[in-house]
Amino acid sequence: MGMCDTTAIAGWLIDGARSAVMPQDVLEGLCDRLVSCGIPLWRAAVFVRTLHPHVTGRRFLWRQGHGVEMSELLFEGLETLEFQNSPVARVYASGAAIRQRFAIEDDVADFPVFRDLRAEGASDYLASPLTFTDGTIHVATWATRHPNGFSDEQIAGIEAIVAPLTRVAEIRALTRMASNLLNTYVGRNTGERILSGQIRRGHTEVIHAAIWLSDMRGFTALADRLPPQTLTDLLNRYFDCQVPAIVDRGGEVLKFIGDGLLAIFPVAENRTNTQSVCRNALAAACDARTSIAKLGDSAGIEDVDDVRFGLALHLGDVLYGNIGGGNRLDFTCIGPAVNLAARLEKLTGKLGQSVLASDAFARHCCPPLSPLGEFTLPGFNLVQMVYSLTEATRSNP
Hints:
Strand content: 25-35%
CATH superfamily of the largest domain: Nucleotide cyclase, GGDEF domain
Number of strands: 14
Order of helices and strands: HHEEEHHEHEEHHEHHHEEHEEHEHEEH
C-alpha cells in the first residue's frame, strides 16, 4: 500500500467544504475523497455534541455504498450502558485517540461494539478526538474491511485531515447551535428572521394574524400553596398541552409570561388562507382545551383537582418585530389587536368560558361559533361581539 496524500482533501476542508450544503454532505464528500485517495474506508462516523433542550448530540454515519445516516442521541442515551461502554464515550472522557486492529489483536473485549464491528468484517478501527476551540471533545471514527487493515501511511493521511475537519464541524455546529437556541427561546420563524439580520431595534413590520392569548386560572393561588418545583412541573405540563397543538397547526409561540402564553398564526399577505388559519387556530384551541381538562385528573398533585385555563382568539393586524431598550431586545408583537385579545382573555373567567373568540375571528369559522352577546372591553370604545365554542366546534372544529 502506497502513500496517501490527503493534502487536497485538507484544503477542501480548510476552505469550509463549501460544496457541501448539509452536514451529512460534508461527511459523504470527505469519505468519497478519502476512498479516491486510496484509503479503504468501509465505515466512518462523526459524533458532535450540541446545545438543545432534548438532544445531547448527533451522529453522522457513512457506510460505503449507503451514503450518510443521521441520528440523534437524547440526554437519556448518555445513561445507557451501551453508550457508557463505547469507544466514543472513552474518547469524550480522555481526549485521546483509540486504535484497534481486529485482524491482529484477538482480544476486543474492551468495548462490545468492537465485537459487532469485527463480526461485520471490520479489520481495523480508529477513533479520533475532534477538539473544538472551547476545549470540548467530539469524535470521528474510521473503520476498514481491508484484510491488512489501515497502513501507517493511511492512518497518517486520516490524521492529517482531522484538524481541518474539526474546524468545519465546529463552524457547522455553532451555526446549528445558534439556530437551536433561537428556535427554543423565540420560535422557528422568529429565529430565522433574527439570524437573517433583523436585529435592529425598531425593525418591525405589520402582519395579519390570528392571535392566541391564554393563561391558567387560579395560578396565583396555586403559586402560594405549591412547592416551587411542583409548581414548575405543573406549569411545564400545562404548556405541553398547548405548544404542540399550536406548532403542529402552523402557529408560533412568541412568549411565555408567567402562566400566560402569546402565539400567532400568520395569515398570507393576500389573505387567501384566512379561513384555514382560523380553522387551524380553533382546532389547536380545542386540542389544548381537551388536554388541559385531562391534566387535572392525571396531575397527581395534592389539592389540585383540575387545571383551568382561559384562551382568547382574535384576528387582526399586529406590529411584529424588535422592541426593547438599549441592547436588550424582544422579538414580539404588539398593537390594538393584541390588547383586545388580552381584554377578551380576562373576560373568560367572568363568563366561565375556557375559550372566547372575537367577531373578527369568528366570522371565518365553520361551523360557526356561538354568540354570547356584546361586551364593553376596557380601553375600547366600541362594544365587541364575543363568541364561545359550540358543541360542534368542541368535537369537530
